[in-house]
Amino acid sequence: MKNKKKFSLNSLFYNNRFLMFFSIFAAVIVWLAVVLEFSPEDERVIEKVPVTIEQTQVMSDFGLQAFGETEYTVDVTVYGKRYIVSPVSLETDDIVVKANTKYVDSAGQYTLTLVASSVDENAEFEITDISLDSISVYFDVETETEFAIEAVIDAPSGIAPEGYHVGDTVMSSNTVTVSGPSTQIERIEKVTAAVSLESQLTQTESFGCDVKAVDSNGYEPEYLTYSIDTDGFTMTIPVYKTAMLSASVSFINSPANYIKNPLSYTVSPSTALFGVNEGKLENLNGIISVATIDFSDLKPGINTFIIDSLPVDSGVLLDGTESFEIVVDVPDVFEETFEIPVSGIQVTNIPRGITPEIVTQGSITVTVVGTQEELAKIDEQSISLQADASELKFLEKLSVPVKVIISDSDFCWASGDYEVTLSA
Question: How far from 101 is each of 108, 110, 184, CA to CA, in Å?
Fold first, then answer.
């Protein structure tokens, strides 16, 4: 039986390979001990450490918050052993800088002392300097108020020359909500949109303008925000050339004969003072349409219409005219009625995915106007109906307009309005 060799620690030191590794290991341990114990001390600046503005219980109870510049950063100088303060060991997140708010108890501007410390209470380095000792911050309760926007036009020589009319300005928005510190909001007297004109205007133009709130002295309060895009805000200044024009009438859905031979009519007053875009004025030849009359609104004999004095075509009324009375004479024509079955109605403009059904039963009584000779040529087969289903929605019933088409006649038209009910 062979005897086993006993392990001897002493024998390892007679092993050259073991001795080599042991020597290297021992040297590293000694080196680390020397570095850690006798490492030289160094100073380092940690840049852009963020400042935290503390929210105290008093501030929360009174609803106070910071306004204006609140995102501050500072540079912090630290001192300690080189391996501790090196960039590898110490970063920005290891330092905290707080602004002392314990004396903030009401609205106003405060100077807050900055205090820097290590996140780790047991850190083995010293903070020796901070680039800012204090910051100035405004505290208040946030509030918001809606204001009407007042147009302000700076035009030393006048907005437009003589012979032109300046209309009411049109702005991107007529109101704005302003939010900010309550003491600053209380200072606001008005909100203005201002434009400066270098020369007079002879046509309608739009301008980018400066929107801001101002106090009684014309100064803008601080720390305000606006509910609209003030950079993209525009103001349009309408400018019209003034002219005395004759009033006329336009007709639509006219039979071919009446396009060639228009009906006679009168307009009262026959002339009025208008403001018209200068570029269009020369094409009017002194006449402007004050109303559009659909032939379906005309009956045999005298037809009278009262038109309110609203802006017409490309112009506006300037002389205080309150209304126009239009009298259209439709002579030598008669009315005749026809019963048209609803089953023959053609449904047009059907939305995708919709299958319309005609709910109305029976027939529609259509009144046709024309001369006796032309009416004698008309029968039920001459009249077709079209129902517009463009507004019809799924699982819905809807009354829709019906268009009356009279074929093979240049002299007759359907008088009145017609509807049917559709379902989907």
Answer: 12, 9, 21
Torsion sign across C-alpha atoms 337, 342, 348, 350 = positive
221 close to 213: Cβ distance less than 8 angstroms: yes
pTM of the model: 0.69
On whether the CB atoms of residues 368 and 385 are closer than 8 A, the answer is no
Question: What is the H or E stretch that residue 23 is in?
Answer: helix 16-38
Element (H, E) at 78: strand 73-81
Q: What share of the chain is helix, strand, coil (3-state, %, to 5)?
A: 15, 45, 35
**How far is the C-alpha of 278 from the C-alpha of 202, rounded, in Å?**
8
Q: What is the pLDDT of residues 131-167, one digit of tens each?
A: 999 999 999 999 999 999 999 999 999 999 999 999 9
Query: Per DSSP, which regions of 197-286 are E strands?
Result: 205-208, 210-214, 225-226, 234-237, 239-252, 264-268, 271-276
Give me the domains of the chain, ranges plus CATH numbers. 41-132 (2.170.120.30), 142-237 (2.170.120.40), 241-329 (2.170.120), 334-423 (2.170.120.30)
Q: 139: closest CA among 177, 101, 113?
A: 101
d(CA 298, CA 294): 7
Neighbour count for residue 114 (Cβ, 10 Å): 20
